[in-house]
Design a protein that fits this description.
Layout (H helix, E strand, L loop, with lengths): L14 E3 L8 E3 L2 E8 L3 H13 L3 E8 L2 H13 L6 E5 L7 H6 L7 H4 L9 H4 L3 E2 L2 E2 L2 E2 L1 E3 L2 E5 H7 L6 H12 L9 E3 L5 H9 L14 H16 L1 H10 L4 H7 L3 E3 L3 H16 L3 E5 L7 E5 L1 E5 L6 H12 L18 E2 L2 H13 L14 H9 L4 E5 L3 H15 L5 H17 L1
Parallel strand pairs: 3-4, 11-12, 14-17
Antiparallel strand pairs: 1-2, 5-15, 6-7, 8-15, 9-14, 9-16, 10-12, 10-13
Length: 432
């Protein structure tokens, strides 16, 4: 796969002569740095405002959009013509941008020379690796999350699930509940349907390797697809139960064996720690959706890049690094400054979030969530060390996978034919 050569140069600062006062004083002109953000993304809204206040020597030109769709429509057009803001900010859940194709087109500046500034003791190294495309660091991950399931402590003890992986638990739970019309296996609190995201986030086997080249392990893909199919087989029950208790989330919790979330695992743990005892009379247990071979795969939520056309690469990097290390709050209040919904990549900031969750109450269904207990606080502190793979989901590949694999997931077509169709389409995608 060939890539366009990326050219960048530092702009020379101009000198302003203040002749009005007749002093002859020479002042350096402020450098301008442009960036787009979306008003619903609290991390970017807060971090950029803070950076602007702390860097008076830099003129930060911020353009705010109401939605990612509106920003994407303008941004992609500008990038294709070698324009656009100096700093590019994305959200993998909403921006629907194809990082592979954008990098291949030469839209992003290589960050390799800057990454040495981020020490492993300060940042989560495995998470930073997700920003590499074709062996080059084009993207800087800024926050992360993973799929997680919640169950009750009593069910875990009763069924012998303690210490087992989600891969072992959910098939067994499916078989146990298959004939029980009053229960569903799991309530999925996420909208994504494509198998690629299951593969990337659960099995830890991305469909593109580190060089940005297509590769696939059919056996691993098949196992992951079978796992995903459990949810689709159970979808009618899930819909019936959630519809019945649509205005009573605690009631839903009491009638479901598992709740699966793609929302913030940090705040969720505090929330369910309070909800489960009230709803089911037992403590909540969190099961990270790890890999079959062990370890944990996490999804990058927010990530940034530097425009290859920028004339201020050092300043653009400075802004990205500032966002990566900015403080944040896990309070989830829309009125709270510096709020965020996902885990930061800075170790110190992450630990600060755990401390906040352990010492403060938070939003709840009918009463505030209690602070994390000691065991759950310890669990959150251990999570980063379990990460063995971080990925930035690719919506283009996800759409292909959904189109090709959905007939298998719904039981209308065999795996082999769906898989072969997907492989054929992926080859065409990479050759475009």
């Amino acid at each position: 796969m060939t890539r366009s050569k990326i050219l960048s140069s530092a702009a020379l600062s101009g000198i302003l002569l203040l002749s009005a006062c007749g002093t002859g004083t020479e002042l350096e002109a402020k450098k301008k740095l442009s960036v787009y953000r979306v008003e619903t993304d609290a991390l970017y809204m807060s971090a950029l405002d803070t950076y602007q206040k702390e860097n008076s020597d830099l003129e930060l030109e911020i353009k705010t959009y109401p939605t990612y769709q509106e920003m994407k429509d303008q941004l992609n057009t500008e990038l294709m013509s070698g324009k656009g803001p100096d700093v590019l900010l994305y959200n993998s859940l909403y921006s629907e941008s194809d990082p592979l194709k954008l990098a291949d087109s030469g839209a992003f500046l290589s960050l390799d020379s800057y990454m040495e500034e981020l020490s492993n003791s300060e940042y989560f190294e495995t998470i930073l690796e997700a920003g590499k495309i074709g062996g080059t660091q084009y993207l800087l991950p800024l926050s992360w999350n993973f799929l997680q399931a919640y169950s009750s402590d009593s069910l875990a003890r009763e069924q012998g699930y303690q210490g087992k992986s989600l891969y072992e638990i959910l098939p067994a739970e499916y078989n146990r509940l298959e004939s029980n019309s009053d229960n569903a296996l799991c309530s999925m609190q996420f909208a994504r349907a494509d198998v690629v995201n299951f593969m990337a986030e659960i099995s830890g086997t991305p469909i593109l390797n580190a060089a940005g080249e297509f590769h696939s392990d059919e056996d691993s893909f098949h196992q992951t697809a079978e796992f995903a199919k459990l949810f689709y087989d159970n979808l009618p029950k899930m819909k019936a139960i959630t519809q019945k208790y649509k205005n009573d989330f605690a009631g839903v919790t009491a009638h479901l064996s598992f709740l699966m979330e793609d929302y913030s695992f940090m705040n969720n743990l505090r929330y369910y720690q309070t909800l489960y005892p009230n709803a089911v009379g037992a403590e909540a247990v969190m099961y990270p959706a790890g890999q079959r071979q062990g370890g944990l795969t996490v999804q990058i939520i927010q990530y940034g890049a530097v425009n290859a056309s920028t004339e201020s690469p050092d300043e653009a990097w400075s802004l990205l690094r500032s966002i990566a290390g900015s403080s944040c709050s896990m309070n989830f209040s829309k009125y709270e400054e510096k709020q965020t919904y996902y885990a930061p990549i800075n170790r110190s900031v992450y630990n600060d979030c755990v401390t906040e969750l352990s010492t403060q109450t938070g939003p709840g269904a009918k009463k505030p969530s209690e602070p994390l207990n000691e065991a759950n606080a310890a669990l959150l502190k251990q999570i980063p060390e379990q990460i063995t793979l971080a990925v930035i989901p690719n919506p283009s590949i996800g759409t292909l996978a959904e189109e090709c694999m959905m007939p298998y997931l719904t039981g209308n077509k065999d795996f082999e034919s769906c898989y072969q169709e997907l492989m054929n389409k992926l080859v065409l995608y990479l050759d475009e």
